[in-house]
Structure formats: structure tokens, C-alpha cells
Amino acid sequence: MQSGQSNISNATTVGNYLSLYLGQDQGVRLGESTVVSRKAHTRMPEKRIKGQIKILTNRDAGKTYLDFVDLDQVIHIDVYHKPGDIDPCDVAKSIFWSLDQHLLTEDPQLKYAEDERFRLVVACANKIFVTTNGGKGVLYDLFQEKIKPYSEGEEGWDHVHILARFNRDDYPLIYVISEAVEAAILGSDVTLAKVRNISHGKQKKTEENFAGYMKLPWKKFKGQNASQLPSKENVNQLVLKLAEKFGGVEEIEEWMECYSTNIFKRKGAEYQKKKWGDVEHYVEQLEELGLMKQGPAGRKLTKRGIKLHEYIIQHQCELETEIRRNMRKMPGGGASRFRKLGSTEHKSTHLEFTNYNRTINNSDKNWSGNLAVPETIIQAKKNSFLRGDQIFTLQKEDLHFYDKKSYVPVDICLLIDASGSMAGDKRQAACFLAEHLLLTGKEKVAVVTFQEHSSRVVVPFTRNQKLLTRGLSTINPAGLTPLASGIVTALELMQANRLRNPLLVLITDGIPNVPLWTMDAKADAITAAGQLEGTKISFICIGVESNRIYLEKLCNRAGGALYMVDDLNKDNLINIVRYEKKNMAHNF
């Protein structure tokens, strides 16, 4: 090992070196066994070129391994080794103490502030995910020997696989981590494997090839004699697949019109990307199905594609019913990653209703509910026989009443950041959340957006799904982030309606940059958030880690809670709002 000062110098040099290459989407080899990039890595077939690693330039590491929406958020570090078992806890401890020593050498004053130094190391450790052939987990969990099992086929079988949510300022730590991992491997009596060369290239996307199994009436399958399903059922299956990407029927229709034979109805690739994200895969699938083709003026619908478009318009009601059924499905609880800072302390009110599926027979309790006549007569008949009554009699002990249920209704207003950075998949996730909430609950939902220099009510409080869908289709992210205006508009909307346990949910990936009252956009937003204090409105914000410090101040001023997520995908959004609703249900 080198001296502390030299180690810092090396870390700084490597950090500058990585900033240059990673910023150009290039991978870098550190030493003989470590590969670093912001992309996925793959080994070239051993029989062709032994020890060569390929950097897949079209596969972002965060999106590939952690299902992130935002790109370039994760650093991917692979340290290759010869066959042997590597304990992930040993790796985690080696990294943890190396980070601790690095911070101490970088700032000797931390020697007298052990609690602060420990907090800094833990904060860094919680941004690092480690996988070896012995298990996996967040580095701080592994440091405490909390291991998740390794699954066959995962990354990490012949290398230590590390994902770190680092920004440019953290790049010097990559050198510290790679040295610590190599030391842990050698300490396990396992030999490091040499990476002889790295290359760069693209890998074909692994998105579902639904064109390969859909048996539409006009598609011929060579050598296949199986009878086809009814054409209507197959077309519906295709529309449901498109709905997973684009949302409702009206949005699918709008997307298909972008490839209309009428050039005046077309909208370019930039508009499509802003609204729906990357659509290239879906275009390729429709080409394979014979619904689109390349023409002199670009891709356009074929005659069959036009028929499909007409079919969607004609059967809109039926198709929307199927799409709603799919939207009601809850995401898996393990798919989301979030942490909560702060809390909401508003008391919730509940409603009671009669449960006609369950009856109660309790003669010691006074009931004022609905009498269950059939069950009461049956019970009285039995008891009359057991009592030896000469005639049929009805006693208090025979009475059956329908049980009562209670629930906490939560009317939700979604305050959605519609600035340019929310375009594509993040916009789709927020819109999906709005529809999911309306379809799975009994409460009203409203949507307010803020962008450019103002905010607007996209959807007033409603239980009407068509009204909601129509409003969501008008959201086209662009421009700046006038958060203060958004908070004020949402508050005015909520105070103008009679709501039950109102909840305001702010969804943003940025911080405000357009003021409302003064020249300070951030201060104005915090002032606007202060207007929520003293109201009966609960407030939560869903944001990304890079904006934590400011959003925490905003939530503290509003008396609400902050949920930090790795990115704003629909599973995270749905699970957070569901979690908050459960908390409110326990506070009545």
C-alpha cells in the first residue's frame, strides 16, 4: 500500500481521468483486472478473445441493472478474478474501512469527529451495491452481514460487480474502491484475472419481441399449421401491449397518427420522445407485423396499419375496459426503492359502511346496524328447538346484524413537474400513477402541472376516468420549473373543493428556477410550501437523491414528508403513494 498522501494524489488523478473518459461514454481499465464505465459490460466469448471485455454503449448501467429511468446516474465497476468463492461481506468491509481511511487522510480533522466521519462513510456506503458469487446487497447492509442470496445467471460469478450512485465529485472514490476490492479478492486466496483489452459496441435491445408471437389475421407463419385465435382477440392483445407504453386508447391513436399517410397529421421524433420516451422498439415491432413500412418521406402506416387504427377508434370503449383492468394491477412490493424523511402528522377521518358479506351474533352488545333477517330467522328456529319452545319465538340472543367496515378515504392532488427534464418515461410514470389511483380507489383525483413560467389545473377533482385521461394527454413537458406557482395553484384548487383527508403529492426531478414573488425561485417555493401549514392538507414530495437537501427544507416548511427514490418509475410512485395512504389509515 502507498502512503496516505500519495493515495489521495492517485485517487484525484484517477478521478480526473475518469471524468474525461466517462463523460464521452467510454469505458476505462484500471490496473490489470478492473473495468469502469457508466454502461453494462460483457465478456467476449473465451474461444475467440480471452480476457477481452466489451462496453455496451447503448445499455446504461443504472437502467440495465437497477431499472433507472434517468441515464448516467450509476458507475459500474467490475473487478475480475479466477475461479474461487468471494464473500461479499469481506468485500464490503474492505471497501468500508478504505473509505473511512481515505476520508481521514483527506481531512485529518475528522480524527476528532468520529461520529461525523462515520456518518459520511455510511452515506457513501448506502449508495454502493455489491454482488459476488457469494451473495449481494447494499454495501452498508453487507458490512453488517445482511446478505441477499446470489441467483444463478446474475452478474458477479467471475468478478466482483459494483454499482455506485456517484456524481463527478465522487469519482476519486472509484480508485479507493477498486484497490479495496482487489485486496479483498487476494485476501480470499483467489487470483485476479487479467483484462487484456476492452472494446466498445452496441448490443441489440432485449425488449420483448411481441411481434414474434402475435398471430394477427394478416401475418403468415411459415411451417405453422396451428389454428389461429379469433382476429378480434389478437388485435386486442396488440393494443394492450401498446397501452403498456403509451397509456390509454387516445394516446395510442395519437401515436399512430404520427405515421399517418396524411403528412399534416404527423408529429416528429422529437415530439414523440418528449411525450412517450424512446418509441423505436415499438415502431420496429409494428414494421415486423406489417403495420408500418419505410417510405420516401419516412415511416408510415400500411393499409393494414390504417385498418388497425380504424379498429381502435371503432372499439375504443371495449379496449379502454381491457386497459383499465390491466392498470388496476399492483406492482410488486420488492420492485421499489425509496426512503422516507420526515412525517405527516395530520389526523385522518374515517367512514363506516355496512358489510353485507358478514354477520355478527352477539347478544351482549347493543347494535344499531342493519338486521340480517334470513340469518336471524334461521338462528331463532334453531334456538327455539333447543329451548323447547312450544311455538316459534324470537329472542335477543337470536338476532344477527350485518357487520360494519371502516376505511379512510384519501382525495389526492398530484402536483407534477412538467419541465423539460420530465419528458418521456417520467411523464408516462406520473400519468400512469394518476390513472392507477383513480381506478383502484373510491376517492377523487386531481392533477396540477407546472412548467415554463406558470402552472395549470390539468384535471380538476374527479372520479371520471375519461376526463382524467383527456387531461393527462395534454401534458407535454418543456421548459423551466416554476414550483412556487404550482404549489399555490394546487392549494387553491384543494381549498375550493370539499375533500376527505386531502393529500398533496409533489413529483419532481429538479429544483425550482422560476420565481413567483421575488427574484429567488427557491425561497418563493419554500414560502409557498409554508402556506400548507395550518391546513388539513397532508403533503409528501417524491424526489431524487441529488436534490435531497433543498427538498428536505421544502417538506419541513410544509410539515410534510420527503420520499427519496433512485428514479421516478411507475412502480416507485405507486408503492410510495400506497404506503402513505396506509399510514394515513392508521392515524384516525
TrEMBL record:
<dbReference type="InterPro" id="IPR002035">
    <property type="entry name" value="VWF_A"/>
</dbReference>
<dbReference type="InterPro" id="IPR052989">
    <property type="entry name" value="Mg-chelatase_DI-like"/>
</dbReference>
<dbReference type="InterPro" id="IPR036465">
    <property type="entry name" value="vWFA_dom_sf"/>
</dbReference>
<protein>
    <submittedName>
        <fullName>von Willebrand factor, type A</fullName>
    </submittedName>
</protein>
<dbReference type="Pfam" id="PF13519">
    <property type="entry name" value="VWA_2"/>
</dbReference>
<feature type="domain" description="VWFA">
    <location>
        <begin position="411"/>
        <end position="580"/>
    </location>
</feature>
